[in-house]
Amino acid sequence: MNIQTDHLGFLEDLNTWYEQVAYFLAHLENIKLSDQHFEVIFALRTFYQTFDLSPAMRPLCKFLKAKIGADKASSIYLMTLFGQSPAKMAAKLAGLPKPDNCL
Questions:
Q1: Average pLDDT, 10 consecutive residues per value, the chain (103 residues)
Q2: Known active-site residue 61
Q3: pTM of whole model > 0.70?
Q4: What gap in Å lies between CA 100 and CA 23, rounded to an integer?
């Protein structure tokens, strides 16, 4: 797959994202995507389309709570899916820019 990323692995052109790109990026991160991952990824893409930014952890959890339910909006749940920096990894897999507040 020929996709352009920055030095951190985030897409250079957000318009080149589609589901296969998410699978490819996840493979590079040793993550096996499931329906639960995509539920968060699609919600995150909706957040970006609405607010024109990738959310850090706190606004991401608040948005997910409203969109997909409190049980899927906790930081612990998101860490089980995306690892130690879930907002950053979910944004990467969703083809979005790195959230400003994530290291």
A1: 88 94 96 97 96 94 96 95 95 94 60
A2: no
A3: yes
A4: 24
In whole angstroms, what is the distance from residue 95 CA to residue 89 CA? 10
Number of domains in the chain: 1
Residue-wise over 34-72: b if at least 16 C-beta within 10 A, else e?
eeebebbbebbbebbeeeeebbebebbbebbeebeeeeb
Residue 50 Cα distances to 26, 54, 85, 95, 98, angstroms = 24, 10, 23, 15, 16
Domain that holds residue 26: 14-93
Q: Which of 9, 13, 102, 103 is catalytic?
A: 102
Q: Is 31 among the domain residues?
A: yes
